[in-house]
Write a structure and sequence with these properties.
This protein is of the alpha/beta class and 213 residues long. It has 6 helices and 9 strands; from the N terminus they run ααββαβαβαββαβββ. It has one domain: Rossmann fold. Strands 5-4-3-6-7-8-9 form a 7-stranded mixed β-sheet. A two-stranded antiparallel sheet has the order 1-2.
Length: 213
């Protein structure tokens, strides 16, 4: 199977063919081998336009949604980014291509271990993963220039807003367990501006300031 060809097709049709226009984002998706982040049984579908299971009732998001959330952060290469929900590690790898440092929190240790192994194999040195409640953020490392949440929260967690730098951005799905709205939050002069982007469906964000187990 020619994964490079499938990756190029994914970028051309699913991303550039829609509204992903940031060249740095497109280049990152051309580089990062998505098939490395799923099990062998799912590798043939790794570049398809839908989410895939990664175990522990979690998923690797649709490529377009990963790209859209990444593009909304408008990363330039100097940022310190926090990711809530490491999952497969794919989003972290994309962020690592675009930012200076990535800190990622995963509540399920088996997924964190698996993601760390793949990221190590791919040579990423600027990604730090810990197992914890992502809704608490990573206080001792904060503030962050950008925060991305890859699970659905019932509301915007104020713990994460507080860990944003002035001018920082937070992107996350907000809503119920069967459908949410992707929201972009900007922190300006201590206040937040929110913008609704599009409807989406993510697994629930579990934690103190998310959904209960």
């Amino acid at each position: 199977m020619n994964f490079k060809e499938l990756r190029e097709k994914m970028v051309g049709q699913q991303l550039a063919g829609r509204d992903i226009k940031d060249k740095r984002v497109l280049d990152a998706f051309l580089k990062v081998e998505r098939h490395r982040f799923v099990g062998e049984e799912a590798q043939s579908s790794a570049y398809a336009d839908y989410p895939l299971p990664i175990g522990a009732n979690q998923t690797i998001s649709q490529p377009y949604m990963v790209a859209l959330m990444t593009q909304l952060l408008d990363l330039k290469g100097t940022e310190k980014v926090l990711e809530i929900g490491t999952g497969s590690g794919y989003q972290a790898a994309i962020l690592a291509e675009l930012a200076k440092t990535v800190y990622s929190i995963e509540r399920i240790s088996s997924l964190a271990d698996k993601a760390q192994k793949v990221l190590n194999e791919l040579g990423y040195k600027n990604i730090n993963i810990k197992v914890d409640d992502g809704t608490l953020g990573w206080q001792e490392i904060s503030p962050f220039d950008a925060i991305i949440v890859t699970a659905a929260s019932p509301e915007i967690p104020q713990t994460l807003v507080k860990q944003l730098t002035e001018g920082g951005k937070l992107v996350l799905p907000v809503g119920g367990t069967f459908g949410q709205m992707l929201v972009l939050v900007k922190k300006q002069k201590g206040k937040i501006d929110t913008k609704e982007i599009c409807g989406c469906v993510f697994v629930p964000l579990i934690g103190k300031y998310g959904y209960n187990k």
